[in-house]
Amino acid sequence: MDWNAEWYENKHGFVAEYGRELLSCVPENPDQSILDLGCGTGTLTHALLEKSASVTGLDSSPEMIAKARQLYPGMDFRVLDARLMPWRNRFDIVFSNAALHWIPDHGTLLNAVSRVLKPQGKLVCEFGAHLNILRIREAFRTALERRNLPYTTRFYFPAAEEYGSVLEQAGLRPETMKEFDRPTPLKGGPDGLRNWACQFFREDLNNLREEQRIQIFKEMEDSLKDELWDGSQWVADYRRIRVTAAR
Ligand SMILES: C[S@@+](CC[C@H](N)C(=O)[O-])C[C@H]1O[C@@H](n2cnc3c(N)ncnc32)[C@H](O)[C@@H]1O
To answer: What are phi and psi of 4, to 5 degrees?
Structure first.
């Protein structure tokens, strides 16, 4: 998956803004070391300095890490796939906002998280829950199917109960798990939904001609208008899962 870091900073800054609430689940302790997994352009990695002086940001996208390094020079940022993290017993906290649903195979991912955490270390994360953006996904899928085009976008949006077992299988003990609706206004007025779709359905959209893309956006907007347009902005049907778990 390619990420356009400039576009993300300008149009999707809300992702990190919502993530600030998750910071309250991270204890303050100057001696602890924190990993921000899927750190993107580094907004929350930088904010985590309020909790500890030792913070590392990790992301598989070279574009995102380049932007993070430009915005926060001197901080420790690494380009790495989270499933291939090389450390062992290295971090007190693994923090992650809005990243885990992009990563397939949470068995492998959580084994890696468990390995990099110190004993008693904690995972603090929030990402898309079961039924997240269901209406938007269905509208997109329908528009593709109408043209006999494949819908290949895959996210992992688990329910809390299911995710509890996945954590336990990786040796992580769930402490708190919460699923909740979080209707999310999208920036850009009438263009908000298509701006958002350009990033989130990027892989399927990349294969299409510009005119096809525009027709698909129009069909999505027509079918979602009654439910997700509030008169001045699009409000996406986000559902989140917030988890703390201990090694
Ligand atoms: C929606 S962004 C969230 C960025 C940031 N946490 C925030 O709150 O703004 C999701 C990030 O997850 C990263 N990501 C996706 N798969 C990954 C993987 N396997 N390993 C590490 N990072 C990954 C993407 O590159 C992207 O920067």
So the answer is: -100, 105
